[in-house]
Design brief:
Layout lengths: L4 E6 L5 E6 L8 E6 L3 E7 L7 E11 L6 E6 L3 H9 L5 E6 L8 E7 L2 E5 L7 E11 L29
């Protein structure tokens, strides 16, 4: 059985909570990260640059019966900049900001772009909830140049300083 990558976050009481990042088979198009050093996010990247129109269809699943951990869903870095990036032949990106995540981040169970399945993962056998996200974006002019370089997605995770205990 594969285990998810672990990120340790220290709370004010000095105790450590482990935040589990679920395994997924979509590292080319999706990554978890931390924005502004405190907000957990998921970043989605289109399969190629130069797409005149992008239609995202995403499913995220989380354990338990709590409210949705999805706080906001936005084009990245902003809708205006995303359109400009698409017009300039760059890859489109979408960001999901999470809230109330305590033990495990939501798991990506489906990612489709323009009706093409890029990846899918099984849901947990434990009680869980799923949210479906549909977003679209369109270039505002004809794309004449496509940028061949793709920015590598490396998650930005919180830096953890060791805590020293003196006996």
């Amino acid at each position: 059985m594969k285990c998810g990558f672990q990120v340790f976050v220290f709370v004010s009481l000095g105790a450590a909570l482990a935040i589990s990042l679920p395994e997924h088979n979509c590292t080319e198009f999706f990554t978890y990260g931390v924005e502004d050093g405190k907000t957990f996010v998921g970043i989605f990247t289109a399969p190629k640059a130069g797409l005149q129109s992008i239609s995202w269809h995403i499913k995220l699943t989380w354990l338990g019966m709590e409210d949705s951990p999805v706080h906001t869903i936005d084009h990245y870095p902003s809708e205006e900049q995303a359109v400009q990036n698409i017009n300039n032949g760059l890859w489109a990106q979408l960001v999901v900001r999470f809230r109330n995540t305590s033990l495990e981040m939501p798991k990506l169970t489906l990612l489709e772009v323009n009706n093409m399945t890029l990846c899918s993962n099984p849901k947990s056998p434990l009680p869980s909830n799923t949210i479906t996200i549909n977003r679209g974006i369109v270039a505002t002019r004809e794309i004449t140049t496509i940028k061949a370089e793709r920015i590598k997605m490396h998650p930005v995770l919180p830096k953890i300083k060791p805590t020293f205990f003196i006996n």
